[in-house]
Structure formats: C-alpha cells, structure tokens
Input
Amino acid sequence: MVKRILGNIVFIFFFEVLCFSSQSLGDKIVFFAKKFLGLPYDPDPLGSYVRKKVLIYDEKVDCMYLTFRSVELAFSDGDDSKSLFVAV
Output
C-alpha cells in the first residue's frame, strides 16, 4: 500500500515537472523514440530484456520495449539512472 502511494506521488511529481518544462511530454517521447531508429528488432517473443533479466537493454527493441523505454526516458529527461527509477 505504501509503495503504491509513493509510486503515485513520484508519478505526479514527474508529471508536474514535465508539464512546466519547455517541451511537452509527447515531444519528449517522440524525441527518445527516434533514438531507437535503426536498432535491430528483437524477434524473441519473451523479449531479450526479459530473458536477460534486465530493465535497460537498448541493443534490440520490440514494440513494447520501445514504448516503455521511450516513456521512461521522456519522464527522466534521458538520464538512465532516473529512467530506471521510473521503470520500477
């Protein structure tokens, strides 16, 4: 219960910070999604990131990883350590 409440507070904090920044959240998501252009597609149905048991695996992408990772990076302004916090 406490973890969920803290998670919601963190989400609201990041949302508020992004709302008042110079770029919209959508623009940031597009910016980071474009960074994945040209990467190989991950054909593993489970996902290489799941099979390797890691949260960040930017060597290959599938549709779900691309979506989640782009949003995580947008919320964290591209900082990997912050994006890991957002992912969890």
The chain is about 60% helix and 0% strand.
